[in-house]
Specification:
3 helices, six-stranded mixed β-sheet, alpha+beta, five-stranded antiparallel β-sheet
């Protein structure tokens, strides 16, 4: 039996998916791209026989003590199908604020600021992690999530982004400038 190895090519590099970390003074945040089944019990398969997957992201946050970030006691939050485009909208600067909860006791807040996006991840009744994302970090994170979102529909990122911009335009025209638990919150003028 003969086995062959792939040809060695010094210009070929294997790239593995990884998270994107941003460090603040009191906490750090990591975004990890992930896939999950839409319904664990669903017999639905795609044309290649794969389960019905939804590509999304997990936000993880760790508090800081001195110069050490405690990733062993990290807080995690996985975005749902409805939360993903709203998170992208805030991270790319098209929408003002989203507050996601209804994930047990966990919550995630993303809020537009002049200098970027403020991220708050925590659990009700416990401490939380607050990490400011400067605009370059927020745009990078938004683009990571956008690539996941677009891949769910077989769209290119530009087409997916136009849909997200359209969603934000409809909300703004209706005076809805923030979202809590995927429920529009009318702005108070």
């Amino acid at each position: 039996m003969t086995t062959t190895s792939p040809p060695e090519n010094p210009t070929t590099v294997s790239i593995y998916a990884h998270g994107y970390k941003v460090y603040g003074l009191k906490a750090a945040m990591e975004i990890k791209l992930t896939e999950r089944l839409r319904d664990d019990k669903s017999p639905v398969r795609d044309r290649f026989g794969k389960p019905d997957l939804f590509r999304t992201a997990i936000f993880e946050a760790a508090s800081c003590s001195g110069r050490h970030y405690n990733w062993k006691a990290k807080k995690t939050f996985s975005l749902t199908e409805l939360e993903l485009p709203l998170a992208i909208a805030v991270l790319l600067g098209f929408y003002r604020k989203v507050c996601f909860s209804n994930h047990g006791d966990k919550y995630l807040v993303l809020e537009y600021q002049k200098t970027g996006v403020l991220m708050k991840l925590g659990e009700v009744g416990k401490d939380y992690c607050l990490v400011p994302l400067q605009w370059p970090n927020a745009i990078y994170a938004g683009n990571l999530l956008l690539s996941q979102y677009a891949s769910n529909f077989g769209l290119d990122s530009s087409t997916a982004l136009e849909g997200i911009k359209s969603m934000c335009l409809h909300y703004r025209r209706s005076g809805i400038l923030s979202m809590e638990d995927k429920i529009p919150t009318l702005s108070k003028h």
